[in-house]
Amino acid sequence: MGAKGNGLTSMKNMEKELLCPVCQEMYKQPLVLPCTHNVCQACAREVLGQQGYIGHGGDPSSEPTSPASTPSTRSPRLSRRTLPKPDRLDRLLKSGFGTYPGRKRGALHPQVIMFPCPACQGDVELGERGLAGLFRNLTLERVVERYRQSVSVGGAILCQLCKPPPLEATKGCTECRATFCNECFKLFHPWGTQKAQHEPTLPTLSFRPKGLMCPDHKEEVTHYCKTCQRLVCQLCRVRRTHSGHKITPVLSAYQALKDKLTKSLTYILGNQDTVQTQICELEEAVRHTEVSGQQAKEEVSQLVRGLGTVLEEKRASLLQAIEECQQERLARLSAQIQEHRSLLDGSGLVGYAQEVLKETDQPCFVQAAKQLHNRIARATEALQTFRPAASSSFRHCQLDVGREMKLLTELNFLRVPEAPVIDTQRTFAYDQIFLCWRLPPHSPPAWHYTVEFRRTDVPAQPGPTRWQRREEVRGTSALLENPDTGSVYVLRVRGCNKAGYGEYSEDVHLHTPPAPVLHFFLDGRWGASRERLAISKDQRAVRSVPGLPLLLAADRLLTGCHLSVDVVLGDVAVTQGRSYWACAVDPASYLVKVGVGLESKLQESFQGAPDVISPRYDPDSGHDSGAEDATVEASPPFAFLTIGMGKILLGSGASSNAGLTGRDGPAAGCTVPLPPRLGICLDYERGRVSFLDAVSFRGLLECPLDCSGPVCPAFCFIGGGAVQLQEPVGTKPERKVTIGGFAKLD
Fold it and tell me: In this predicted structure, which of 2-16, 52-66, 336-350 has the lowest mean pLDDT?
C-alpha cells in the first residue's frame, strides 16, 4: 500500500511535465521536434498555419481516420450509410506530397520549413516534409494515459459513436481508432466482415500505432544514427544521407540510454538531502529577494522624494528672487512716475517754480531760486534723456534645464563596473610586478578595485583554487612586491562601486625573472669617449653618436679608417649568487654587444682604442685570436651577445667564445629577431651567463664565463646605437660607483 501510494503521489506531482507548451493541456499525439522538445500534433499544425505554411501539417503516423471523425457516421441509429474508406486520399493529403498544378517534382530549391519551438524559443528546421517527417512520442503518450488513469482525469470515457447523450464506452478499437459502447461496437463490427476480426481493447482516448514507424518509408525503425541522433529504418540506413554515419541497432541505443538515464536518476535519488538543502537555500534566496526588493523600493522612493524636496526648495527660492526683483523695479518705476507728474503744469515742482517766479524781492528770490534751479535743471535733463528707471523684461530669470532634464531622463540604477581591460603594454614583471588596467569606455565608474593573483607553477591543492587578494586598490595600477623568482603568476582584477563587484578581467600570465634583479647605473669612465657616447642624466641610458668624427676621418684618409670600440660598464660588480638585469637595444643600432665580463679585464682591454679592423681582434673572445690555442680550455673573461640592425647574431664567433646554446634556444650560426627587451642572467658560482628574451623568457644563448673576480655588466658600441636599462618597478636604489672592485655609495 505504501509503495502504491508513493507511486500515485509521484504521478500526481509530474503533471507539469505532461503539459503541452502551446495549449497548456495534456499532450495529445505529441510530436518530437528536432530540438527534442514535444508539442501536440494539432498545436503544431496550428502554429505552422499561423506562420503561413499551408499543406505541411501532415500526420506523422499516416493512419486512417476513425469513424468518429465523420459527422455523417456519428451514430448508426441516425444513418446506416456506409461511406467509402478515404484511407488512400487521407494519406496523400496528410503527407503533403500530392501533385498539383504549378508544382514540379524534384525542385532545385525545396522549401525549408522552420518551426518556432515554444519551449526553447528557437527556430528549428523541419525539412521539406514538415510535420510529416517527425516521430510521434509514443512513450510520452503512454505516460499521459497512465497519468489520466491514476488521477481519473475527465471521469469515464464515453462512446464516440452514440447519439447524444452518449453512453459510457466499454471497448476500444485500435484499427478504427475509436471507443464504443457494446451496441455501437456490434454495429460497426458486423459478423462476416473484415472488421469483425478487429480485437477489442480497453477504452482509451489515445490510440497509438503498434510500433514506431519511419515517417519517410513507413517501415519499422530498427537502428539509431548517432551522428544525426535519429531513429532510422533499413531503407534509411542505406541512403546517401547517412553515408559514413555511426549507426547502431536500436537495442544497443536503448540499453546505452537506459543505463545513462538510470545512472543519472540513481544519483539524483541518492542525493535527495542535497536537493532538499538546495531547495531550502533557494527558498531563503526568495525570501531575501523579497526583503531586498522591498528595501530597494523604499530607498528609491526616499531618493525620489528627496529630489522632489530639493526641487521644491529650489522653486521657492527662485520664485522669491523673482518676487524681490519685481518689487524693486516697481518701486523705481513708481518713483519715476511721481517725478514726471511733478512736471505737469500747476503741480509739484513746476507749480512751486511758478510761485517762486512771482517773488519780487531780489535777495530772497536769489536765495530760493538757486536750489530750485538745480532741481529744474535735473528735471529738464531727465525729460530730454528719458528712459524708464527699470526694465520690464525678466529674460535674465529664464532657466536652462536642458542638462538637468537629460540627467533626469538618464536617471537609472547604478550598474556594477564592467570587466577591466588589462594594459599588456604597461604590465610587466621585473624586480616587482606592475599591473595596469583601464575600464571600458562606457563602463560605470569604480570606487576601488580588487587585485587577485596566484602562482601557476605550484602543485594544485585539493578544493577550490586559492587566490591571494589585494583589497581596495585606488587608481588603475597596482604593485605586487617581492614575487618569487622563476615563477609564473596569473593575475586578474575587478572593480567595485555602490552597486557591488563587477566581473573579473581576463587572466594575464606574467613570468618573473629567473634570479634576483641587479640594480646598477652606467659608468662611462672606462673606454668611453665623451665625443661619441652620451649617457643620460639618470645614468640608465646611453647613445653612441660617432657619425661626424667617422665621416671626417674617412674624408681625410680616403682609403679607410680605424674604428674604435666604445665601452660602458655598470657601476656594480657581482661577486656571488645569481643576478638578473634587462635592457632594450635600439633596433636601428649598427653594432652593439651586450654582456658581462671580469671587471679587471674590461678596464685593461678598453682603456685604449683597439683596432677593430685588425683580423686578430675579437671583442667576444677577450684576447687576441693568435693566442686562442693556449687558452682554448679556459673560460673566457667576457661573454657578449652581438646585436646589429634589429637582429641577434648567434654565429660562429659568438658560439666559439660563448660555448653551447641554451636547450630551448636557437642553434648557433643563425640570426633571430631582436626582442623588445633582452635579459641577462648571471650564475656566479657556476660560471655561466644566459641571454634571454625578457618578454617571454625564452632562452637565446648560454655561455661560460670566468668568474675568478668581480664581474660587471658591459655594453660595447661600434658605430651608432643606443641602450636603455629597464627601470626598476619599485623604489629606485641609491646610485653606487665601483672603483677597483669595491662598491661605495656616491
Answer: 52-66
Enclosing H/E stretch for 282: helix 272-341
Highest mean pLDDT among 129-143, 380-394, 418-432, 658-672: 418-432
Residue with the larger pLDDT of the pair 114 and 421: 421
Cα(632)–Cα(602) distance, rounded to whole angstroms? 19
Q: How far apart are CA 290 and CA 264, in angstroms?
A: 34
Question: Which of 613, 565, 568, 611 shows the shortest CA–CA distance to 590?
Answer: 565
Q: Judging by beta carbons within 10 Å of its beta carbon (0-12, 13-18, 19+), is residue 220 exposed, middle or buried?
A: middle
In the numeric block, the cell 649617457 is attached to 535
Q: How many CB atoms lie within 10 A of CB 436?
A: 17
pTM above threshold 0.90: no
Q: For residue 367, give Cα distances in angstroms to 364, 374, 416.
A: 5, 12, 86
Hunting for cell 609564473 — which residue is that? 488
Mean pLDDT of 260-279: 89
Distance of alpha carbon 122 from alpha carbon 141, whole angstroms = 24
Which residues does 619 contact at the CB level (< 8 Å), separation at least 6? Answer: 565, 593, 610, 612, 638, 640, 716
State the Cα–Cα distance between residues 108 and 29, nearest whole angstrom.
33
- Between 104-113, 142-151, 479-488, 663-672, the lowest mean confidence (pLDDT) is in 104-113
Burial of 724 (0-12, 13-18, 19+ CB in 10 A): middle
Residues 107/114, Cβ–Cβ less than 8 Å: no
How many CA atoms does the CB half-sphere of 428 hold within 13 Å? Answer: 17
Helix, strand and coil in the chain, % to nearest 5: 30, 25, 45
Alpha-carbon span 240 to 626, nearest angstrom: 80
- Categorize the per-residue pLDDT at 665 as very low, low, confident or very high, splitting at 50, 70 and 90: very low
All 3 cell numbers of residue 514? 629567473
* DSSP H or E segment with residue 648: strand 647-650
- Residues 152-195 have pLDDT tens digits of 545 677 787 787 788 888 888 877 778 888 888 888 888 888 88
- Do 610 and 631 contact (CB within 8 A), yes or no? no
Question: Highest mean pLDDT: which of 52-56, 132-136, 547-551?
Answer: 132-136
568 within 8 A of 534, measured Cβ to Cβ: no
Nearest-angstrom CA–CA distance, 235 and 351: 129
> What is the amino acid identity at position 528?
A
Residue 192 is predicted with a pLDDT of 81
DSSP state, residue 717: E
Round to whole Å and give the CA distance between 437 and 491: 11
Query: Cell numbers 595596469 label which residue?
Result: 436
Say if residue 261's pLDDT is above 50.
yes
Residue of 469, 511, 459 whose CA lies nearest to 494? 469
CA separation for the pair 622, 696 (Å, rounded): 30
Which DSSP category does 21 fall into?
T
Closest C-alpha among 63, 72, 80 to residue 174: 63
Sheet containing 30-32: which strands, arranged edge to edge? Answer: 38-40, 30-32, 135-136
Q: How confident is the model at residue 581 (pLDDT cuts 50, 70, 90)?
A: very high
Which residues contact residue 647 at a Cβ distance below 8 angstroms, ignoring those fewer than 6 apart? Answer: 671, 672, 673, 674
Q: Please state, in angstroms and as integers, the Cα–Cα distance from residue 550 to each residue in 525, 545, 609, 729, following that order.
A: 21, 10, 14, 38
Nearest to 744 by CA among 523, 549, 534, 536: 523
Q: Between 658 and 227, where is the model more confident?
A: 227
CA distance 246 to 253: 12
Q: What pLDDT is recorded for position 90?
A: 47
Q: Which residues contact 628 (CB under 8 A, 6 or more apart)?
A: 621
Q: Say which residue, 120 or 151, is predicted with more confidence.
A: 120
Contact 576, 569 (CB under 8 A): no
**Mean pLDDT value across residues 200-214:** 71
Q: Are strands 591-598 and 638-644 parallel, antiparallel or unpaired?
A: antiparallel
Mean pLDDT, rounded, for 218-226 = 82
